[in-house]
From TrEMBL:
PROSITE patterns per UniProt: ARM_REPEAT
Source superkingdom: Eukaryota
Keyword field: Repeat
Organism: Pycnococcus provasolii
SUPFAM superfamilies to which the protein is assigned, alphabetical: ARM repeat (SSF48371)
Entries under PANTHER family matching the protein: ARMADILLO REPEAT-CONTAINING PROTEIN 6 (PTHR22895)
Positions annotated as ARM repeat: 80-124, 168-212, 212-256
Gene3D superfamilies in alphabetical order: Leucine-rich Repeat Variant
Designated name of the protein: Armadillo repeat-containing protein 6
Keyword Repeat annotated: yes
Residue ranges annotated for the LRRK2 ARM repeat domain, each copy included: 82-245
Length: 264
């Protein structure tokens, strides 16, 4: 990668190799991180911003390098990885595969990493994720990964909850649920997103309730009765939607929420 920085094909294949070396392999993630792999991937992204295949494979390599690896998450965050991913998303808004892999990367950059959540929020990551959702409403994979990115961006982060709520994130998540009712993973991760959006955030609780979020969650529970993961995230969403919020408590009760929870 260092010897042939200017050759896009080399960078693409090298990112692909790094991805497969570290997928489900913690030791190789550590080796790659310690050997300067983070800088190599980011150099490839910056040198070849216009090359879709490089951006796509680099985002996927970043995703796997950061999977359950706090050191690599910190390396990428400190080295400008957030800006590199967001540049890819903005430069290639129409390319669904770039949006999918970039949302995956943002998810693993922010998972259990407060500093990266703040970096992503401050750099405009919320707008980038929501733009992906609006631009690719019919693409299951974009909606699924974007919902999970929203979930992690909001985890214990009041500022990102407010950003997402104020910029139409609630409507984007609910639209994904309605458009892809039959897809269990979209429903599961959308419920997870609603849970973290509403946790300790009265304004988002009200937004979700007023926008029909209660019906969306209950519909997910009824449509996917046999899927334990959907039921778990839906119940957690109902918990946070109703916490100290009388109006949502009433909505959930009137819409059959008690029966849905007990049926679980």
């Amino acid at each position: 990668m260092r010897r042939h920085e200017s050759v896009a094909e080399v960078q693409r294949e090298a990112c692909l190799a790094l991805r497969w070396l570290c997928e489900d392999h913690a030791d190789n993630r550590s080796r790659i991180g310690a050997a300067g792999g983070v800088d190599a991937v980011l150099t490839a992204m910056r040198r070849h911003e216009s090359v879709v295949e490089v951006q796509r494979e680099a985002c996927l390599a970043l995703h796997w390098l950061c999977e359950d690896h706090p050191d690599n998450q910190s390396r990428f965050g400190a080295a400008g990885g957030v800006d590199a991913v967001l540049t890819a998303m903005r430069r290639h808004e129409s390319v669904e595969k770039v949006q999918i892999q970039a949302c995956l990367a943002l998810r693993n950059l922010s998972c259990n990493h407060a500093d990266n959540r703040s970096r992503i929020g401050a750099a405009g990551g919320v707008d980038a994720v929501l733009t992906a959702m609006r631009r690719h409403e019919s693409v299951v994979e974009v909606q699924r990964e974007a919902c999970l990115a929203i979930h992690w961006l909001c985890e214990d982060h009041a500022e990102n909850r407010s950003r997402i709520g104020a910029t139409g994130g609630v409507d984007a998540v609910l639209k994904a649920m309605r458009r892809h009712e039959s897809v269990a993973k979209v429903q599961e991760w959308a419920c997870a997103a609603l849970r973290n959006l509403s946790c300790d955030h009265a304004e988002n609780q009200s937004r979700i309730g007023a926008a029909g979020g209660v019906d969306a969650v209950l519909n997910a529970m009824r449509r996917h009765e046999s899927v334990a993961e959907v039921q778990e995230e839906a119940c957690a969403a109902l918990l946070d939607l109703s916490w100290d919020h009388a109006e949502n408590q009433s909505r959930i009760g009137a819409a059959g929420g008690v029966d849905a929870v007990l049926k679980k």
